[in-house]
Amino acid sequence: MGKIADSNRDVIVDNLEILDEKITVPHDNSIEGAYAFYIESLSHMDTFLDNTRKSMLYAKSLYPTEYNRINGDLANLNHALSDLFSTIEKPRNKLDMINNIFVDIEDIHNLESEIIDSRNKIQELKNKCTALDANIQDAKSDLEELINGLEYPRAEAINSEIDDVRQQVMDVEADIKRMFTPLSKALSRMKKQDENGIHTLSPQVRNILGIVMKDPVSALDYDLDPLYDELILRLQSDSLGLKDKKKNKTLEQLHSIKNSFSLKSLYENKKKYDNRLEQLRDQLDWMDVYHQKTSMEKDISKKQEAFVSTQDKLEDETKFLKSLEEKLENTKSELSSHVNDAFEEDIEILFR
Question: pTM score, two decimals?
């Protein structure tokens, strides 16, 4: 029992020595220094009580006189700390209020500076929008002047004629393809029999056959008589295996193509239209007006994109300025409140 008592006594003594070392009156006798001393001392006392709680129970029963003296000293120390806090509480609160006032004043100065910067930026963006809009209007006027000039209507007329001639070319090509359509089955069988080695074609006829099946229009640049003659012989000999009705119609169309002037006339018309198309395109290439128009339209589009982007920035900056102004008003209101609380009277603050 004696060992336990001595052990617990030693715990209390050791922790009292630690507490005595840590609770020292500071050199800083300001309100903040006193408040820091108060907070630290309370923390040290709480640590002492946590470390000696069990030992103090032993001391209370084994060393009641010493226990009561320690407990009384701790109570006196706690009372002294409470008196210290009571002394500094009100002036410290007032000091906090005054500090808040200085913080509010600094915040107001910073916000006013930000607002000036934001307003300057807004003015710059407005000036940029005005300049861009003027540039866009000038560019549109230049484009309109180009379109209303002498060269552009001529270019438009040439372009319109190009469209017409291109359509004529397409119509002629369609007519040529339609003339060869009734021959497609017979031509296809000739090709298959040649590939399978049933009826081998000469290289010349094989080449012409391939061109006709792929693009009858381009085939007209070749001499097609060898193909026609071969096809007539194959139809007449029934080697293509076509039914009589189909064979007769194919022969009739084949003779029509070979002997009439319809296909030749279509071919001549196509060459005429092709030549005219080339002439018109050359004329249009020599005219710079379309290139100018395209360049001017791209320039206008680029300026319009820059204008929209600048407007978006202006809108964002305007919203930001509004938020700054609202924050400034709230900070001014907080400053007035803090001043009134600090000096305990209604004080009117005149802001610039």
Answer: 0.53
Report how far residue 344's alpha carbon sits from residue 337's, in angstroms, rounded to the nearest whole number. Answer: 10
351: which 2 tokens? 């802001």
Cβ partners under 8 Å of residue 318, min gap 6? 122
d(CA 320, CA 118): 8
Query: How confident is the model over 54-107, as pLDDT tens digits?
Result: 777 776 777 777 778 887 877 887 787 777 666 766 777 777 777 887 888 888
The dihedral formed by the CA atoms of 305, 306, 308 and 313, expressed in degrees to the nearest 10 = 140
On the CB side of 44, CA atoms within 13 Å amount to: 20
Residue showing tokens 């509480």:
89
Each as own residue / partner, the long-range contacts of residues 114-121 (CB below 8 Å, 24 or more positions apart, any chain) are: 114/324, 115/321, 115/324, 115/325, 115/328, 118/317, 118/320, 118/321, 118/324, 119/321, 121/317
Q: What is the DSSP string of 136-148?
A: HHHHHHHHHHHHT
User: What gap in Å lies between CA 132 and CA 151, rounded to an integer?
Assistant: 29
Q: Is residue 183 classed exposed, middle or buried when 0-12, 13-18 and 19+ CB atoms within 10 A define those classes?
A: buried
pLDDT tens-digit profile of 239-286?
888 888 888 888 888 888 887 778 888 888 888 988 998 988 888 777
Distance of CA 43 to the CA centre of its chain: 55
